[in-house]
Design goal:
mainly alpha, Potassium Channel Kv1.1, Chain A, Four Helix Bundle (Hemerythrin (Met), subunit A), Helix Hairpins
Length: 412
């Protein structure tokens, strides 16, 4: 740094949790978009000590923050906590995309593991921080607090809920079976279902109201997938009590019974393996969309060629491109039902190419999916989620930083 006089520059002092740091004001102002480089830092100025006070920040991590202003290179501590580091970056207004190449991969891996662990934590559905009346919440909390903190009671409630859902699904399956040649179980044993349906209606209605009451945001829960499934499950039972409804309308409304089987997915998340699979698919949703787009594009291409190859054959089954599209899908997925087969030599050759293309296209995402699933599964096992254990030190959600695109040094 060139020689400065007092009138040219000002040396600023930062007190970070008792540790003092000094920096030239002109150096900090090279990054005006950040906290230290802008005017926002004046809110932390102590007029009595002449220092900028950051009592809640980590002095060890602040060294890396200050080094960024001096060298224009942002580094990541080799043994630091990525959650604390991300929080420091957020507080001082520094984007993680600016992490230097030498440290970026290390930060990305640790941040990815942290995000994985945070996703696998059980959602706090019994949090009492919503907008409903505090007295009502506290009364409910007093009743449930012992059960929530007691692992045995929690397991009993969980398995009891699974039992009710499984019983409802079994009843839904049984009522569709043919008891005799002219009657189904629903018609022959109507008195049994007349007792079972009100019972499940009461159970699931009470569960739904309890979830709405204890949700952090009642409106958000009602609009969520879980809330919609619960509501339609209740409606599917209520519709059984309706009389004088048109048969067509009743047959349409009976489709709500599908949601009874979907409700079991809520309790399937108790298994950390199922939750790992869910988070794997949600994480790779973008890649799966591209995969489906690629399959559709290749299928349409092969279907069009098949149609023009086979349409000249007498009594050809390839009478349209959509029918050929069905054949390409079956061939690419190696199912091969045999309902459609090519008759011409060029069609048979193309069918072989289509099958090979399908194998290659389907195998590409398998490695990515398996790797992602294994990462979630190992993280869940390491955290003890398979035993239903929580982590007191992880009660707060980590700073959620998505994987940013790298900014080349030439563009900084």
């Amino acid at each position: 740094m060139s020689t400065r006089t007092a009138c040219e520059d000002v040396r600023l002092v930062f007190n970070v949790n008792g540790v003092r740091f000094e920096a030239w004001k002109s150096v900090l102002e090279r990054h005006p978009e950040t906290l230290l480089g802008g005017e926002e830092k004046e809110e932390f100025y102590n007029i009595f000590t002449g220092e900028y006070m950051f009592e809640d920040q980590d002095p060890d991590l602040f060294r890396y923050i200050l080094s960024y202003y001096r060298t224009d290179k942002l580094h990541f501590p080799p043994t630091g906590c990525v959650r604390s580091y991300n929080q420091q970056l957020s507080f001082f207004g520094i984007m993680p995309e600016l992490i230097d190449d030498c440290c970026y991969e290390h930060w990305r891996q640790k941040n990815s593991r942290e995000l994985t662990r945070s996703k696998l934590k059980r959602p706090g559905e019994l949090a009492l921080n919503g907008v409903l009346d505090r007295t009502c919440r506290m009364k409910v909390n007093d009743l449930l607090q012992v059960a929530v903190r007691n692992q045995t009671a929690t397991d009993v409630l969980r398995y009891l809920g699974c039992y009710f859902v499984l019983s409802a699904v079994i009843c839904t399956i049984l009522e569709s079976l043919q008891a005799t040649e002219n009657k189904r179980f629903r018609e022959m044993y109507s008195w049994v279902f007349d007792v079972v349906d009100p019972f499940f209606t009461a159970i699931f209605s009470a569960e739904y109201l309890l979830r709405v009451l204890l949700a952090q945001s009642s409106l958000q829960f009602v609009r969520s997938v879980t809330g919609v499934i619960d509501l339609f499950v209740i409606l599917s039972y209520i519709l059984n009590f309706l009389r004088g409804v048109n048969s067509t309308v009743r047959s349409i409304l009976s489709l709500t019974r599908i949601f009874r089987t979907l409700k079991i997915l809520q309790y399937a998340k108790v298994s950390h393996g199922v939750r790992c699979l869910y988070h794997t698919l949600s994480t790779l949703a973008g890649e799966l969309v591209y995969l489906m787009f690629g399959i559709a594009l290749v299928s349409v291409t092969f279907a069009t060629i098949f149609y023009y190859f086979e349409k000249q054959v007498p009594n050809s089954s390839y009478n349209s491109i959509p029918s050929s599209f069905w054949f390409t899908i079956v061939t690419m997925t190696t199912l091969g039902y045999g309902d459609l087969i090519p008759m011409t030599p060029q069609g048979k050759l193309l069918a072989g190419v289509c099958a090979l293309a399908g194998v290659i296209l389907m195998s590409v995402p398998v490695t990515i999916i398996v790797t992602t699933f294994n990462r979630y599964y190992r993280s869940a096992a390491w955290k003890g989620n398979d035993a239903g254990e929580g982590d007191d030190d992880d009660s707060a959600e980590p700073f959620n930083v998505s994987m940013p695109k790298r900014i080349p040094d030439s563009a900084r």
